[in-house]
Design a protein that fits this description.
With 158 residues, this protein is mainly β. It has one domain: Beta Barrel (Hypothetical Protein Pfu-838710-001), CATH 2.40.320. 14% of the residues lie in helices and 49% in strands. It is built from 3 helices and 9 strands. The chain has an 8-stranded antiparallel β-barrel with strand order 1-5-4-3-2-6-7-8. The longest helix has 9 residues. The protein is globular, with a radius of gyration of 15 Å.
Length: 158
């Protein structure tokens, strides 16, 4: 278990070094969602399978993640119908922080969000976003992955 301190931003444009980024294909489904309390999700990330439980805060959250077997993932995947997302995640480093850029597919096609994790609240407060970042959406509930999976793109993104 660890505390995740993360900010999310819309992307204005992809950075110059984007083609050099390490990329992962992700399919993610939500097994259980208790709005305002927690989410339980499963994820396949480039051939590895995970189950994650997260608390529902904005900037900092409790996260427990563990690897599961492919067979268990596939059984759980069946019950995530209507609560799924597909995306390609690209990892780059800028100003000594890891930036994960998610480019969504399917019904969320065209949506691009950057996530940046920090070691402390202070680090997050001192973070100066790169010029290719757009609006910060950390506290905008519509951009939570579980709501994107259930409700689709926010209306201002369609």
């Amino acid at each position: 278990m660890h505390e995740e301190i993360e900010k999310k931003f819309l992307i204005k444009y992809l950075p110059e070094n984007f083609d050099l980024a390490k990329k992962f294909c992700i399919r993610q489904g939500y097994v259980a969602i208790e709005d305002g309390k927690f989410e339980v999700r499963i994820r396949e990330k480039s051939g590895k399978f995970y189950q994650t439980v997260k608390s529902m805060n904005n900037l900092n959250r409790i996260e427990i993640e563990f690897e599961i077997r492919n067979e268990d993932f596939e059984k759980l995947w069946e019950i995530t119908e209507g609560r799924r997302i597909y995306k390609t995640r690209s990892e780059l480093f800028d100003s000594k922080v890891k930036i994960e850029i998610d480019i969504y597919e399917g019904e969320l096609n065209g949506l691009q969000i950057a996530e940046v994790e920090f070691n402390s609240i202070l680090d997050s407060e001192n973070f100066v976003p790169p010029v290719y970042f757009g609006k910060e959406v950390t506290n905008d509930k519509r951009y939570k992955n579980y709501l994107l999976a259930v409700q689709g793109k926010p209306k201002d993104q369609i």
